[in-house]
Amino acid sequence: MADLIALDNPRDERLRDYTDLRDVQLRQSVEHERGIYIAEGTKVIERAVAAGHEPKSLLLAPRWLGTLSDILESTSAPAYVLDEKSIERVTGFHVHRGALAAMHRPAERSVHDVLATARRVLVAEDLVDHTNIGAIMRNVAALGFDAVLLSPRCADPLYRRSIKVAMGAVFSLPWARIDDWYAAPALLREHGFTTYAMTLSDDAVPIDAIEPAERSAVIVGSEGPGLSEHWQRESDHRVIIPMAAGIDSLNVAASTAIACWQFRP
Amino acid sequence: MADLIALDNPRDERLRDYTDLRDVQLRQSVEHERGIYIAEGTKVIERAVAAGHEPKSLLLAPRWLGTLSDILESTSAPAYVLDEKSIERVTGFHVHRGALAAMHRPAERSVHDVLATARRVLVAEDLVDHTNIGAIMRNVAALGFDAVLLSPRCADPLYRRSIKVAMGAVFSLPWARIDDWYAAPALLREHGFTTYAMTLSDDAVPIDAIEPAERSAVIVGSEGPGLSEHWQRESDHRVIIPMAAGIDSLNVAASTAIACWQFRP
């Protein structure tokens, strides 16, 4: 059973994992430093716990004690109980969805581990936007892909906003970061994957004219600059979603959805 | 040539079309009442003008005068020039992308007009989120659909956020509102459309098992409650995007992208 601790002071040192949740830059460094991430809302906390993640602590207003009883019973972490106004003073915003939990960040998987049994992998290059990362994780999981690999500059899938947009898919879908991005094409080849780079270049093959290989990796780049030259050159195939004239492009989450659908196992 | 008017006072009555741009509720009523919408950024203003829309006025900081010269030359609307700090005081946020324009809201098209020559139509029910409406307009246009029809409760495609997410596709893609939503299925039938309701129900046909009709309308509902019973009953086909076990669903913009791709003309 969680240790229920009533607090009145929003400046209490024990609440430091929950301060200024709207300050993206601050939070990114704080959460990595302390090895935590923030799960927001009863549903998300439940999913995180169901995925085997451990709460370091919880923060909630009294009226959510009932809703959260299963989680409170299942953990020995401290649960800080404050009135809603004080919680707002700590976090910087009104928490609609009940509770917050500072979760222990699980150990990151290795690329090798993630690729070992996968047949369909989405590889993302330099997607710095948390909403895009979250949307992509959700789409990829829904469409039966097995895993996601991220370049070093990609946004954190365990950031609060990513988790929310992903509807918790970040907890169940295997993902890993590739440290040596330059060697990534070779790495995928070594693991038996055929690579398909999504691009807007004229000489790319329409995605519906391609039969996916037994083990396929689809690579998407950021919306502005697009996929790097290196990846475009080093991938086995360059593919395009044919589009109507005069339209710049689909957003990266939409093109990923279409690509995963087209390559569905 | 635009009438260049230098102002110092952020409270100047002539700036009233630009006040409190972050207050969604206020802006929704103000913009409809005054028959305007706000175009943000040089690129968006250029696209609006290229689509035949007329500026009522412009608002910009001196350093953007050069970038906006083509537009300034092409209109006789007043262009209010203020320093950036004062602009921020008017609008409530820092305008990164240069200028703002209060555009005359174009007359809404009739449903009949929009359907007359269309072969592929996306019909949206009660999507109240501006980001979703914007994303859907962008996807639909990119994938060669001809038009979008909106239920009365759908968010405004000409709201600043929708326009931004749509990358201006709202200016070129024909769209209309259906006032009598209950009669919408019959209306589409009368116009020769076969209707395909996107649903999560068990007895729906997988979308890749269907051959789209010559004139096809795809209907999507909101993420929470899903498409209304009425539409599910009255549509010619009920279709589903098959998904991996344990995932709730795709978000509405992603499922629309896949549906439009699958039904591409």
Automatic annotation (TrEMBL), chains A, B:
Residues 121-261 form the tRNA/rRNA methyltransferase SpoU type domain. The keyword Lipid biosynthesis does not apply. It holds the Pfam family SpoU_methylase. GO terms for molecular function: RNA binding; RNA methyltransferase activity. Keywords: Methyltransferase, Transferase. GO terms for biological process: methylation; RNA processing. The keyword Transmembrane does not apply. It comes from the Bacteria. This is RNA methyltransferase. It comes from Aeromicrobium phoceense.
